[in-house]
TrEMBL record:
GO MF annotation list: aldehyde dehydrogenase (NAD+) activity
Residue stretches making up the NAD-dependent epimerase/dehydratase domain: 3-83
Protein name: Nucleoside-diphosphate-sugar epimerase
GO terms for cellular component: cytoplasm
Length: 298
């Protein structure tokens, strides 16, 4: 297949491009800079210059592809409304280009906002509906297009998609620990996160566009529930610093923006995903990655 990938040089996207190429697929990666284009060219991928605001490029990339994997997001923490607007416009543009083709379209989502005290199931619909909701309601928008002849599916990522070089939430927790001299957890540390290795995530994305039926929700979670205290203890062990509780009211000051997410339970089951696609995660656990130096050492 010819697969159009947005976010092709990002943390998850770069691994996805590698996996798709290794499996014999042709990849067209959206590149917003010469540096990004060069990275993709070196891998053997084709380039489409543009970004999430370049709707003409997104339309072209989708219309010329056999499948689309949409991983890009502005992640503008200072202006989330702008991120949501851009996401909605980009997804709608690509979906319109695929109407009536039945070609696979995979849209990424996270678990934040989906959890209500129990692990999220693949059958659970996202509560984000409409352009003013989280991510512009892109998951529900995409799934609505199944009835218009688009092979839409959603993939929901664990809050930690980890591995050597990860610049996500765990990397920010390391940064806070180094700055404060203490590896903290919030309250009693019983809040839990799901986690998955980047290589397992990339393989699931490929399996999804190859085999998953339209309307599917996939969960990229290998470890269902790791306590935040366990994460903090692993970070403290690697850095050789104390591990202490941080009161909830001090979380923002101690951790920065990531403190909000570290205080949330974000877990999901992947039982249906594993059964449907014979996906069996084989990568290291989050603690194994931390302790092996994937995020640096003291």
């Amino acid at each position: 297949m010819r697969v159009f990938v947005t976010g092709a040089t990002g943390w998850i996207g770069s691994a996805t491009v590698d996996d798709l190429l290794d499996a014999g697929h042709e990849v067209v990666g959206l590149a917003r800079s010469a540096d990004s284009a060069l990275k993709l060219e070196k891998k053997g991928a084709r380039i489409l210059l543009g970004d999430l605001d370049d709707l003409d490029s997104l339309r072209r990339g989708a219309s010329e592809a056999d499948a689309v994997v949409h991983l890009a997001n502005k992640h503008d923490w200072g202006n989330p409304a702008e991120s949501d607007r851009a996401e909605r416009a980009a997804v709608e543009t690509m979906l319109e280009a695929l109407v009536g083709t039945d070609r696979p379209f995979m849209v990424a989502n996270g678990l934040s906002g989906l959890c209500d005290g129990r692990p999220v199931l693949e059958a659970d619909a996202s509560p984000a509906i409409g352009p003013d909701s989280d991510r512009g309601g892109s998951e529900n928008l995409a799934l609505d297009y199944v009835g218009k002849g688009v092979g839409s599916m959603a993939i929901r990522f664990a809050p930690s998609v980890h591995g050597a070089g990860d610049w996500g939430f765990v990397n920010f927790l390391f940064g806070a620990a180094r700055k404060q001299g203490v590896s903290g957890y919030i309250g009693d540390g019983s809040t839990t996160w799901s986690a998955v290795h980047r290589s397992d995530t990339a393989r699931l994305i490929r399996l999804g566009i190859e085999n998953a039926p339209a309307g599917t929700r996939l969960h990229a979670t290998a470890e269902e529930a790791i306590t935040t205290r366990t994460i903090a203890e692993a970070i403290g062990k690697v850095l050789g610093i104390p591990v202490e509780s941080v009161p909830e009211e001090n979380a923002a000051e101690h951790f920065g923006f990531v403190g909000h997410f570290f205080g949330l339970t974000m877990t999901a089951s992947s039982a249906r995903t594993r059964e449907a696609l014979s996906w069996n995660p084989t990568g290291p656990t989050l603690v194994e990655d931390i302790e092996s130096g994937a995020y640096g050492t003291a």
